[in-house]
Sequence to fold (274 residues):
Amino acid sequence: MSLELLADLHLLTRDGQLNADARRKLKQIRHLVGLLRPALDDVLARYEAPSIIDCGAGKSYLGFLLYELVLAPANKGELWAVESRPELTTQGAVRARKFGHMRMHFVDGSIADAQLPAQPNVVAALHACDTATDDALLLGITRRADHIAVVPCCQAEVARQLDAAKSVKHRDAADYALFEHGLHRREFGSHLTNVVRALALEAHGYQVTVTELVGWEHSAKNEIIVAKRVGRSNAHAQRKLDELLQRFAIAPALVRGLAGLTSGAATSATEAQH
Ligand SMILES: C[S@@+](CC[C@H](N)C(=O)[O-])C[C@H]1O[C@@H](n2cnc3c(N)ncnc32)[C@H](O)[C@@H]1O
Fold:
């Protein structure tokens, strides 16, 4: 990334050095761009104007880095940054114009409701808070993105569901021991959330890789789920997912979102028949 852009993003100290936080953040983002590289090369080779959506973009460090390292040299590709804090989208748009990044677009609003390309090629989310990661996954799956990559943020939803369902009668005592203590519930809930995300992607026709973004010494929120659409729905993954949901009596946001779509489609089909 150019020094001018780093300075404009307030990542440099007065004497032009990266401060410790900036160094850590940029290291994560560079690793993410590296892991996204095969997906980006794929869509740049296959499409005239591939679209990439960065969900929960924040200050758009990821977007600016992607633009400078990949889209600008390729001389094609559109980058969409969606962010619910309007001051950040305004700043991002001003900055993109200032640096001549004319193929960067900033969309103010929630991932679920934002006006975005109907058929994005790559959907990414870096530390999108809690269930915002699920909104990004839902967006990618429903719009049949070629590639999806998420680095989940802290997540509390499933831990709450495990807590609420602790009196479920058929619960196996050994299963319950997995999350009886609050700390275990948080960690197990977070793990379960990501397992559900990976299985849901597989069930909807994606080939999934789960790996770490950078060394754990740099960030505790370090898991990355990378998915490539191979186009076949996977009944075996769906069965595993259903069993897991039933066994732990949970219904995470992504599963609810996908179920809503299925029942919505069924309702429209029924309405169409009448
Ligand atoms: C932890 S920050 C990460 C920002 C950026 N991706 C990064 O890694 O530097 C999460 C961002 O997601 C935004 N956000 C949270 N939920 C969102 C939603 N449902 N739709 C759009 N943006 C959302 C927040 O406003 C925040 O800027």
